Amino acid sequence: MATNKNMKAKPYYHQQNTNAAASGGGGGGYSSESSNGGSNSPSPPPSPRRHSSISHSRRRLRTKSFSFFRRDSFALTVSFIFRRNLRYLVLLCLLYVSGLIMCVGPFAGLVGHTPVPGSVYRSHEIFGKLWDQIQSDNSSAIDLSSVWKYKRLKVQKPCLNSTVGRYFGIEKESPGPSGFLIVEANGGLNQQRSAICNAVAVAGLLNAILVIPRFEFNSVWKDPSEFGDIYDEDHFVATLDGYIKVVRELPDLLMERYDYNMTNIPTFRVQAWAPASYYMGEVYPVLREQGVIRIAPFANRLAMNVPPHIQLLRCMANYKALRFSDPISTLAEKLVKRMIEKSSGTGGKYVSIHLRFEEDMVAFSCCLYDGGKAEKLEMDMFREKWWKGKFKRKDRVILPGLNRINGKCPLTPLEAERHLASLLKMFPLVYTKESLATPDELAPFEGYSSRLAALDYTVCLFSEVFVTTHGGNFPHFLMGHRRFLFDGHSKTINPDKRKLVLLFQDMNISWVTFKDQMEIMLSENDRKGIIVPRVRKINRKTSIYTYPLPECRCLQQSHNTTLQLTQPAR
Q1: Residue 430: which pLDDT band, with cuts at 50, 70 and 90?
Q2: How many CB atoms sit inside 10 A of residue 288's CB?
Q3: Gap between the Cα atoms of 339 and 32, Å rounded
Q4: Which residues contact 272 (CB under 8 A, 6 or more apart)?
Q5: Which tens digit of pLDDT belongs to each residue from 274-296?
Q6: 53-54 vs 267-269, strand pairing mode
Q7: Sign of the torsion formed by the C-alpha atoms of 311, 316, 317 and 322
Q8: Closest to 25 measured CA to CA, from 39, 45, 41
Q9: From start to end of 338-427, where are the E strands?
Q10: The pTM of the whole model exceeds 0.85
C-alpha cells in the first residue's frame, strides 16, 4: 500500500493467532494509509464430501444420518485432443509431472537445477534489503479519498414479489406451509452466515417454516454461541416476514412425536451445492408427508445457480435480516467511531487489513516457508491430526514450489508482515480491537471466537480500503457486503500472489520498481472492484455472497457509511 512516511495515517490491524480457534474464521485490520496493491486463492479447507441420503421411517432411507502492506506503494489453458492415440496423452502427462517434480519439487536440488523463480520463500530477505530505500522515500502518498477511480452507474429496479412458493407450483398444491425446516449450521462466523442465508432460500423454495438455525459446536472454532448471541433474532424474524415465516422452536406436538429428540426427526445429508431440483424432487415430498425435516450439516448445501426469486431471499437474509446482536453492534460501532476519530488526518478514512495466516490454512496449502525441518514436521503432524491420511495418498503429489508459483500459498505476515513488530516498524499508527477497546469492553467477548470475528467484520466493512491476503469466507463475504454498500464497488485490494512471488524472488529489485508494480496492481483491483458477473436466467457461476449484483441491486439504498453503521438508533 502506498504511504508517505510522514503521513499521520491511522491503521487498524487484526493479527490472527496461529491457532484457528482464536479467530473464528475471520479477522481484519484497519489502516488510514493510502493503498496500492488480485488473484483468486483457495478457500480454507472445504467441508468433507457427503453422500446424499434421506432419513425417513417409511422408506428405505438412512436415519441420523493475508495482503501486501507497504509504506509508499499500494502497491493455458492448452487443450490437447488426441483422437488417434491415447498413449501420447498419458506419456505427455507423465513427462509434465516428472518435469515439475524435478524442477520445483523435492528433487530439484539433487539434479542441480536452480529453483524456478517464485518457488522459494525469500520475502524476509527482500524486506531487509529494501528497508533503507523505504525509509528514504519522501514521495507523496496516495490520497485515500481518491484511491478508487472506477464508478458504476446505479440502476435501481423494484424487487420481485415477496411470495416465492407460487413460482414452483407449490401454492396451488398446498396453500399453507409444507412443514418445518430445521438446519444445523457448521463452521466459523461466515460459514454459518452462508448456511443461514441458504436456509432462508431453501425454506422459500419448499414453502416451509424455518426454525431459527442451530449452530454446531466446532472443534476448531470452539465457540458455543447460539444464533441469538451473534444475531438479533427479533430483527431476523420481522425482516423476513412476508417472505418466509421464521419461528424460534418446533411446536411441542411435533417434538413430542419425536420423543423430544432432534436426531429422531427425518434427516437429510445433502451433497454440497445441491440444485433446486433436488430439493423439489427429493426433499419436498418427505417434508409434506412428515411435516418436518432436518438437514445436518448445512454448509454450502444449495447451488449458486438458482432462480431469481430464491436469490432474492439470499439477498434479504444477508443484507437486511442478519444484523449483529446488540452487544456486538454496540461495541463494533464504538470501534468504528474511534477509528474515524484517529483518522482525522485522512478525513476519517482508514484501511483495514485481513492478515489470515493460521496453522490450519498453512497446513492445508502444503506450502513451505522459512521454518526448516521443524516447520515441516509441525505441519505434517497437523495435517495428519485433522485430515488423517488425505495428504499421504499415493495419488497425491505435493509440490510446495509449484503451489507458490501458482499463487496458492498464503501470504505470511512478513509478506503482508510476518511479525507485528515489522508491521509497526513501517506503520507506527496501527490499531487492533485490543488497542481500541478497553479490557472491560472486550471481557464479555473473550473465549467466543465468532463474536470477536463479528467485531472485526464490522470495522473492516466500513473502512475506505479493505486488504485481504488469502481466500476464505471472511474476505469473500466482506467483499460482497462492501459491493452492496458502496454502489457496486468492493473497494478491496486482493494482491496478485502469482505476480508477488516473482517480485519477492528478485533480489535486485529496487523500491521504486516494486512500488510501480504495486500501483499497477492497485489500478487492476480498482477495475475488478466494480465487476458484475453476467447472469442470464439462472446460469450464475460465481458466489452471490461475493458478487451480490445484479440480483441484490433492488435492495440497495443510499448509505452514509461513516454515520449509519450496523443498525439505527433505538
Answers
A1: confident
A2: 17
A3: 9
A4: 46, 47, 49, 50, 299, 300, 301
A5: 999 999 999 999 999 999 999 99
A6: antiparallel
A7: positive
A8: 45
A9: 351-355
A10: no
The band of 564, judged by pLDDT with boundaries at 50, 70 and 90, is: very low
**Residues in contact with 549: Cβ distance below 8 Å, sequence separation at least 6, in sequence order:** 483, 484, 488, 532
Residue 316 has pLDDT above 50, yes or no: yes
Taking residues 361-368, what's their average pLDDT? Answer: 74
- Residue 74 confidence (pLDDT): 34
Residue with cell 412476508: 242
Q: Is 186 left (phi over 0), alpha (psi -120 to 50) or beta?
A: beta
Give whole-number Cα distances, 19 to 204, 352, 448, 538, in Å: 38, 21, 14, 40
Return d(Cα 312, Cα 314) in angstroms, integer: 5
Are the C-beta atoms of residues 531 and 547 closer than 8 Å to each other?
yes
Q: Say if CB 511 and CB 227 are below 8 A apart.
A: no
The backbone torsions φ and ψ at residue 165, rounded to the nearest 5 degrees and listed phi first, read: -55, -35
Q: List the single range of 70-84, 176-190, 319-333, 463-477 with lowest mean pLDDT.
A: 70-84
CA nearest 21: which of 498, 473, 361? 361
- What residues are paired with 466 via a beta bridge? 352, 492
Give the Cβ contact number of residue 156 at 10 Å. 9
Interacting residues of 432 by C-beta distance below 8 A, sequence separation 6+ = 12, 13, 14, 15, 29
